[in-house]
Here is the input.
Amino acid sequence: METPSPLLRLSNITKRFPGVTANDRVSVDFQAGEVHALLGENGAGKTTLMNILYGVHPPDAGELFFEGRPVRMGSPAQALRLGIALVPQHPLLVERHTVAENLVLGLPGGFMLSRRRLLARLRERLAGHPIQMDLEARVDSLSAGEKQRLEILRALLRGSRVLILDEPTSVLTPQEVAPLFQQLAQLKAQGLAILFISHKLDEVLAHADRITVLRGGKKVGELTAREATQTQLVRLMLGREVAPRPVLAPPRAGVRLEVKGLEVRSSRGLPAVKRASFSLAPGEVVGIAGVAGSGQRELAEALTGLRPFRGAISLDGQPLEGLSPARLFALGVAHVPEERAAGTVPSLSVAENLALRTYDTALRQGPWLVPARLEREAVEHIRAYQVSPPDPRTPLRLLSGGNIQRVVLARELAGAPRLLIAVHPTYGVDVGATEQVHRLLIQRAQEGLSVVLVTEDLDELLALSHRVAALYQGELRGPYPVGEVDLDRLGRMMTRAGEDVA
Here is the structure.
């Protein structure tokens, strides 16, 4: 049977940045009515290729074809006019406006309509559509899954024929993932070409038709989901197989961290954490789940001195109220923040970022930093944590997300801390970096480090934790022993249903 002509074709795409070739003669076809997954480690070239498709970067060499005609994608606006839309990892919506008002942003002349006529026009256009929403609901009242659907709906109302989905399930609960893929299947049946970028191999194998794998900027494989296995995909992505994860040892006796009646307010002054109480033993990992905006950020910031709180927090019996982040770090509290930008200075070098916690005490001679000592220590961390590229003078902004995360972990775990607050430590990183982070957390817990692990990856949470809890609208449910909680129960703990629903 003859293969139909692709809706979108990338032919020998090459893109270079200073010191790195991000895409090296990459050719990929995207068919109408097909889900095409794009896999690769951080730094493999996926984001660059996506940005070329969406008109953010022009290629240095190679061609793009749409319906067989060569095209030059000069901007995202041009890509949208052509019918190519990007649904970002984090929805870019106006939170205080309604669903209808956000949809207007994608419709020509929408702002000229009255509210009544706008609603009537949208309801007419959405009649029989696979994605249905309450048009009058405010966006800030929507769940993460509903916001994701709103972004997709906004793209479709623009007449998009190619839909690029960047990590579409990264912020969804298990109960929200299945409806999303059901709707994508309906859109595929209507003839859309869907480009699906993900690090979750089980989802890729279950829902993609074809899979393209990049490594080091080059295309190293293309295969159908039917003929692929997780082991095969990992080998293509990494050039090797993933080693088995070490076993998490039981925690030690005693109490390392104790939290009693913790109350934290958001930046808008609203209750974000409501009288939360829990404790950690030495060497224990307690995982905390929750949909975005449920109080995880505020909890982590209270534990690391970044946000005031009411209640009591103690570390090995020592109260921590009123202490600065620097003082807490000196006492043994390390922090991997939710956003890498909050924990790094992209314009500084890798060596300088590794020294942000210690430059004032260990790396100075009088008032001056000692560059040789700075770089010597950086090289040791770079080697131990496999940071790439290995040059300590490289500006951090040139590193991939996974390598920036390695830098943050190396800095925070230097000096044998007693407590680590790790917020989304593998968020948006590839299989290889995830393997290293998991192994590192388990190893340090075996050595006595206590870990509060905040993550939206529920498989990761259950695999790495001794006990698990969930935040829902600031209320802490749990922690419960990990053997008593499966994905379904954890999903209910994160939603209105509550933790005790059978």
